[in-house]
Amino acid sequence: MRGGTSKGAYFLAADLPAQPAARDGLLLRIMGSPDVRQIDGLGGAHPLTSKVAVVSPSADPRADVDYLFLQVAVDEAEVSDRQNCGNILAGVGPFAVERGLVTAGQERTSVRIRMVNTGDLATATFPTPGGRVDYDGDAEISGVPGTAAPVVIEFPPGEHPLLPTGRARDDIDGVQVTCVDNGMPTVLIAATSLKVTGYESPRDLEEDQVLADRLRAVRLAAGRLMGLGDVSGTTVPKLTLLAPPRNGGAVSTRTFIPVRCHTSIGVLGAASVAAGLRIDGGVGADLARLDPGGDRVRIEHPTGFLDIESALGTTSGGLPSARRTAVVRTARKILDGTVFPRPAARPLGGHR
To answer: What per-residue confidence (pLDDT) applies to 257?
Structure first.
């Protein structure tokens, strides 16, 4: 399925091995990793197209289904559950209906989803005329050709502090940053503080070795400040470079996952950016052009924009907190069938 601006393989948990190591080994063979082209599997040779959703009925009374997101590395034999994916999330509700985990309504269906990676909740609402998922519609999102049915995803206030460090700004080796977590641990950085404009193409930014070294150092330090420990082997926190908007939005962004520059922006990362822009004294407050009368925040990215509905409140301790977060995504079923994994590697000296 395509979910938002990502693409991945969606599985029922019961169809995969229960033991994580066996499950991950199978997924590597299904996706064709490790191989920069993923030529022998379903992967598309990019982190955005090498993703997996594992869905099952939920035992949590607040949710209908559990969704475990797994990022399958392209050129390494690694499967990570250290983050969520809000784009792949867009396909979880339709998948749950398709597989009979949730009964469809006659017009629209809302599916309550528990994101296993973090324990956070989301509700996805999408059209189901006549009790069947309808993927056709007129909703358009940047980074995806054509149109499709809208999937409205609403996130209740998270249980994590919006400001993991407890501060609106932190200084990391002379670089001012705002560390925010509104569903995705994210570090906001003014692009100019790293000697770039923030309008460069993803390829140009990836090829800037000086920038890559600075970003790596900032990410490692930010991970410790945010209570994530040693993040050298993980994909979080995300780093988002901010610049003033160019096309009528609130801000222009370039996001790293963690060293590849995203061709758009992830849903949960965008939710964190949108909330971060509203924090008084934060890095984004100096750059963003926000509508003072509304909740919508249009985030520009390399291939267009993403709209987030974002409103903040205040905790009893006086810190900012997320009050409402919602986004419109689309999803589409691309293939329904049987995948044949690459055979498991045999030990040296084994017989065929």
So the answer is: 85
